[in-house]
Amino acid sequence: MPFKSLAGLKKQGSLEAEVVALAPYQPGNVCAAFTNDPVKVAVFPFGAGQMRIQNVSLDVCNDGVLIDERVAVVKSGEELWALLDIQHKPKIDPVSRSIRALYDNPGGKTALAIGWGEDAAELKIQGSEVVGREFTLRGNLRCVSMDGTSCYVVAEGDPGGKFREHAGSTPEAGTQIRCDLPAGAKKMDRLAGGAQLSALTRRGGSDVCIVRKIGAGALEPKIMTIDAAITAVAVIETSLFVLTSDARVQVYGGDVLARVSDGGTVAPTFELSLSAGGAPTTMVASTRGGNRLWIGTKEGEVWRCDAVKGTMQI
Question: What is the topology classification, in CATH, of domain 1-16+140-314?
Fold first, then answer.
């Protein structure tokens, strides 16, 4: 059954600095928020409990991930720094000096760092350190997404790129399934991957390239247009969630996505307006203990809401 609405919108806390990344760690039932100027990391429990905020002695935070509930990795410029024991006073250790992109694995225990050229590393905890197992990429990867069981990538190529799904937490294993993307996806560089649905977009654009699994070994890519500039996308099962720059969260159920034609404009199944401080900056989904969306804003607020399949309001 596709998702029909959103409920239980609640502010989780305010960090008083722009939220640049959110990273759920599902085995630990927590989600981390990373801010810039100043750099902070906050850990929010999925259930009841208080958030924990720690200041970090770095000049810049461009991105951040959790490897477990105690260890984070921050991208600062091209450098990677490990934050150890983030729920108390984090110790900061250098990890790498030349990284292009950093990707979170919500399933936990690893993260993926992409260097320049075809260099990459799987980040893990070894003893009391974060270490990288280096490997060579297959092709020039534009963006990556992981869901705990598979690694989804978009590689450069004509017309709009090559979508691939790999087993595990890196794009090393043989491709399980792949497809060519339409030309309109050429500049899209933000990917939310999932077993039944993946979504690719560009921040500030109004198009989403969805990739639906329609059978064993078969994918259907198509581009859809929405009515606003896009800040972020997330997927849960067969449904798409879109965060717009004017502070709306939109739900597109799997039934709606199945009907939309390639290049068509589609209305959301449901939308929710945020009464948040500052423009929205990022959004991620978590599925352990309930299907939830986490949203960060430029003023440092973190919000959470529940994705609902039924229509009951009690």
Answer: Methylamine Dehydrogenase; Chain H (2.130.10)
